[in-house]
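Why do we care about 3D structure at all? Because function follows from shape, and shape follows, mostly, from sequence. That is the central idea of this module. The next example makes it concrete: a single protein chain, its amino acid sequence, and then its structure expressed as tokens.
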Amino acid sequence: MQFCLEVWGTDYGKIKDACMFVEKLGYDGFYYGESLAEIDLDCWTVLSALAPQTNSIKLGPVITYLISPYRNVALLAKQAVTLQEISNGRLEFRTGAGATLQYASQWWYPYEIDYPKNAERVSMLEEGLQVLQMLWNKSSVQYNGKYFKVLGASLQKPSKPIPITIAAKGKRMMRIAAKYADVWEASYISPEKFKELNVYFSYIAKEFNRNVRRSIELDVIIADSDSDLKYKEQMFVMERGPNVYRQILQNGLVGKPDRVAERVKEYVDVGVEQFFLAFQDPFDKKVLELFMHAVKN
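And the structure:
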């Protein structure tokens, strides 16, 4: 069972300290956000800086984008190979179709990037994955797709294969994950819903004759006393609203340590092998330690 941390923010000192701290605690992965917005530094630069500060923890983006108006796919392929070499094979290449159009006005339009509609982003993702795998494995790449074109390009090859995680819940995206991913990840769903999706995913993974690990992304609210838990729940409601909080109660890890550990087991029992965790404050060392102690004992 693996536990990984999702981190955003612009204070590199805190980011570095958190990464080194959770590695010592036994977390398995540290993933940093990617966007052009002011909520992040540059993702791939930060990850490359973290690599020599750590030894064993997996590193990667929370999600990186295969969107042609945003970035040339060959540049992304080269960034990934570079980080794989700097980290001695610890890159986890995490991708998906990206957030829905409602976020485009905040994250994309101010930078004159025409954010594609959902179906088009899925098509871009599949083309981009094909190009990435060719650039990472072939000596000369020719590709003439609808969204990406490569005209005899070559790229240095990673010394170790780069594992790919694909976030997916819709049927078309799940087929892409079954075909290309090393890890399939669902986000913010209950154990019952994960079990249902996992049945379908197992069927299509068998169709492609692939062994793909299962992961889930969840919010975490954990405290060692009732009063502290109530305070954190109130803060969550203030920050993200009551509707989101109700969803988290159903589809997250909320409670004191024993309850959180029980909830983790409920997910494990339906096939989850990795937890991708979004803490209320990913820099709160006491909470990070409390969670790890709860799930490891």
